[in-house]
Amino acid sequence: MMYSNGMKIYRLLVLVCILICSGCSGTVSTDDLAKLNGYWEIERVVFPDGNTKDYNINTTVDYIEWDGSDGFRKKMSPKFDGTYETSDDAEAFTIIEKDGLFTINYKTELSKWSEKLLAIDDESFSVVNEAGLQYDYQRFEPISIKE
Fold first, then answer.
1. pLDDT (tens digit, 9 = 90+) per residue, 91-120?
2. What is the pLDDT of residue 4?
3. Which domains, and CATH codes, for the chain?
C-alpha cells in the first residue's frame, strides 16, 4: 500500500507527539511550577520532524513571574551593566493541571495560545506548543562588565 507524502508526514507528526507526551508524563509536579519564576533564554527549538535550531546568542530573554494562580511573561533586553530594558507589554497566563499534565494558557489582547509543560528543574524547562514545536529554555546568567 502506498501513502502520499502528506500521509507520511501526518503519521510521523502523530508518532513524535505520542513519544513526547509519553516520555515526559509525570515529570512535573505542582511544587515544580514555582521554578518558572525568573529569567530564561531559549536554548533550542525542536521541530516536529526532529530537526533542531540551537540559539547560542540571545538578544532578549523571557522574564516569568507566577504567583501560584496567575502569571505573566515579558521580553527583556539585558544590558552589559546587569540591568534590563523592557516594554510594558506582558503576556498573561494561567496554568491548568489535567491528568498530571500542566498546560500554560496565554492570553493577550491580540491572541491566545497554549503550551504543554514537558519538564522543569532549577536550570531548565521545556514546553511544546499546539503546532508541535518544542522550546527548550535554560536559566539566564547575566553578563556584567564592570568599568
1. 999 999 999 899 999 999 899 999 999 999
2. 59
3. 5-139 (2.40.128.280)
